[in-house]
Amino acid sequence: MVAIALAVLGLVGLDLTRTAGNGGAPTPRGLAAAPTGVGAPGTYGAARHDDLSYSRPVSTDRPLLETRPGIPRTVHLPAIGVRADVVRIEAAGGVLTPPADARTVGWWSGGAEAGARRGSVLVTGHTVRAGGGAFDDLETAQKGSLARVVTDQGTHDYRVISVRVLSKQQLAEQAAELFDPRGAAQLVLVTCEDWDGTSYRSNVVVLAEPRRAPG
Question: What CA–CA distance (Å, rounded) separates 199 from 197?
């Protein structure tokens, strides 16, 4: 049934493994797109971002906003009209799957909470070819734009630093850095991209760094 649900909704599945060098914490190794989607043939075609520059977030030793870290409740990217409720998701059988409702997104509970001083806040969402997926337009996000996460403890603002379309192989090669639950503080938003008539060939990965308090 899980495989059927993935095929119908066109979701991403996140493969989690235990990797060396991070204290044995489960770290996503790669993303695999579902084999089929819904609606008419894909509307995205070839990737619209060849390889926008990626730079690691700056050191999180500088003070963040005073709001305490918390569990994400909503994600808002106002520049591209994204506002989605967030639900907690876990890695069942080593695979992280977005929620069944295509309008919501999933926060990996094994990663960092929003506003944490260390670690990736990983949020995955749907791309639905017929429309209606929370992250249908994620690839249109721009560097410097706002990504706001509302939590049970308050609101945390992030600044987009990169928007990339990565092949499955590229994502697997960079996953240890992108999804590190103990690395530099960052927000990572992921969805599918590049429908070829049978499957999604790539993933959109948006990285954002915490916005700092003045001074």
Answer: 6
Cα–Cα distance between 21 and 161 in angstroms, integer?
25
- Are residues 99 and 105 in contact, defined by beta-carbon separation less than 8 angstroms? yes
Residue 174 half-sphere exposure toward CB, CA atoms < 13 A:
16
- CA 109, 118, 143, 202 dihedral sign is negative
Closest by Cα among 195, 203, 185, 192 to 56:
185
Distance CA 52, CA 56 (A): 13
How are strands ordered across the β-sheet holding 95-96? 26-33, 12-18, 95-96, 91-92
* pLDDT tens digits, one per residue of 110-164: 999 999 999 999 999 989 888 899 999 999 999 999 999 999 999 999 999 999 9
